[in-house]
Amino acid sequence: xxxxxxxEKPMQLIRIxxxxxxxxxxDTGEFGDLRKQGFAALINARPDGEDADQPGTAAExxxxxxxxxSYDFVPVTLRNITEADIRAFRDAMARADGPVxxxxxxxxxxxxxxxxxxxxxxxxxxxxIPVLGQRHGFDLGPxxxxxxKHFSRRPHVRAFFESRSSxxxxxxxxxxxxxxxxxDPVLNFDEKSGAISTRSADEMLxxxxxxxxxxxxxxxxxxxxxxxxxxHYLKGRTGAPTAIGDRIGKVQEIWKQIYNWPELATDGSQWxxxxxxxxxxxxxxxxxxxxxxxxxxxxxxxYVIGDAAFVHDTLFMPDGGTARxxxxxxxxxxxxxxxxxxxALPGDTRLFTGHDYQPVGRHARWESTVLEQRQNNPHxxxxxxxxxxRRSERDKTLPMPSLILHALQVNIRGGRLPxxxxxxxxxxxxxxxxx
Length: 435
What we know:
Blueprint: E1 2-3, E2 12-15, E3 20-23, H1 31-36, E4 41-44, H2 57-66, E5 70-73, H3 83-95, E6 100-103, H4 108-120, H5 129-136, H6 141-152, E7 156-162, E8 167-173, E9 179-183, E10 186-190, E11 195-197, H7 199-210, E12 214-219, E13 228-229, H8 231-238, E14 242-245, H9 248-258, E15 273-275, E16 280-283, E17 286-292, E18 301-305, E19 308-312, H10 332-343, E20 350-353, E21 367-369, H11 370-376, H12 384-396, H13 404-411
Parallel strand pairs: 3-6, 4-5, 4-6, 9-12, 12-14, 14-15, 19-20
Antiparallel strand pairs: 1-2, 2-3, 7-8, 8-9, 10-11, 10-13, 16-17, 17-18, 18-19, 20-21
């Protein structure tokens, strides 16, 4: 253990390895000394507001940059650590151009993030965790408990964050059979150049191949307004069936009028299967079922697969609130009712959201639980009438997504791009003054 002597409260540093040291809450005035000691980066694993006297992420980031340190904010509580947090900590470590100091209030959360990541990446055995904790004077029981629970979960869920639209795509896999589903895949689109790319979809296919999985379903929760769907592309690459909720025709009818598109089929035939409310299905050996979840759109559904529910644009992470409900066919009242149905699931049900806009500059997160949402999402503390009023008022202040008129003409056809014209190019139709 090293000790810094600057300031009235010297910083206690615990060296874990050549790359990582951990510490309790440091004073921002000591950051310059960290740089002199050879540290290149600071990771703050402590949420703002835990104590009245903690500096907070804004002050820490400013002080770190002034001292020549890179800075990452990965706020966690031991009770609610998710794989997103582990990956964010690992990525921050990988980006650092030299030794890293990670801190929370005591140091235990910072070490927990490192230890869980080491086990998941195969650098540490589960049985070695207690010994490591004892060596450094920490109780790492929560890390062992997290990993044991993680390995017992069904399905296994891998998220892929698409930063351009802040969207999250998922591969959900049955560990017993290797069967998997892709949920809400993104077809990359640059509206400035008109360029289309399959980068995000291919990343998921590479993951599936590398892990020996077999794609059984390509699932959409609803027709998206902020990115193109890669469902049709993935169908062509893999032959796996595509599916969406059976109310898709109602959304197609709305946009058929907006686009003045008389030849558009509005029966959902662009997908291989249309799921009805309450319908059951299987992902390998895992039972799944459908919850009709309108509000954001008329066709939105939730996929409940084992202990995981893919809720997309209903609930965001607790610090992000809830989704907007002002698109054509949307309704704050319907959204409220859909959220109540989701919250009626068992408290430990994992909820996987479709977007994360990274409030207060934190890392991207996408997994919560029903219990965590009930306790920490401020939108859910409102009465039904208050929710509808505030959701409606908030939505009036939000600009429409920049891709809504581009994306819907692709997504109401299951991700199919327009057919090439006689010159071989594809063209999007863009109605003026439509919204």
